[in-house]
Design a protein that fits this description.
By secondary structure, the protein is of the alpha+beta class. The chain has two domains: 2-63, no CATH class; 68-98. The chain contains two helices and five strands, in the order βββββαα.
Length: 98
C-alpha cells in the first residue's frame, strides 16, 4: 500500500497499487481503509518511520477548525428588518405627534 502525505506527514490519500515511481507516495506495510479523514476533513493517520500510524485524539483536535458561527436564516433577516422598520415608524409617529 502507498500513502500520500502533506507537509506535516499527515496521510491525505492512499492507494493499494504500486506507486513506487511517484515521488509524493510512500510505501507502508499497513493497510488502511476509509475513512482517512474525520467529518471536518482532518487526517486520522500520519506517516511515521515508514508506517501508517493512527493520530492521537489530541493531534486531531489540534487540527480541527473552530465551528463557524451560524448564519441567520432568511426569515431571521426579514424579521430583523421588520422590527427595525417598526421602531423607525414608532419614532417618527412620536416626532409628528409631539
Amino acid at each position: 500500500m502507498f500513502v500520500n502525505i502533506d507537509d506535516r506527514n499527515r496521510i491525505i490519500a492512499w492507494n493499494p497499487g504500486d506507486l513506487s515511481g511517484n515521488t509524493d507516495w510512500k510505501p507502508v506495510p499497513e493497510t488502511i481503509g476509509d475513512p482517512i479523514t474525520n467529518m471536518q476533513g482532518v487526517p486520522l493517520y500520519k506517516y511515521q518511520r515508514g508506517h501508517a500510524v493512527a493520530r492521537s485524539a489530541a493531534e486531531i483536535e489540534a487540527d480541527t477548525p473552530a465551528p463557524e458561527e451560524p448564519q441567520p436564516s432568511e426569515m431571521d433577516v426579514i424579521k430583523q428588518r421588520l422590527d427595525e422598520q417598526d421602531d423607525a415608524l414608532i419614532e417618527l409617529a412620536a416626532l409628528i405627534g409631539g
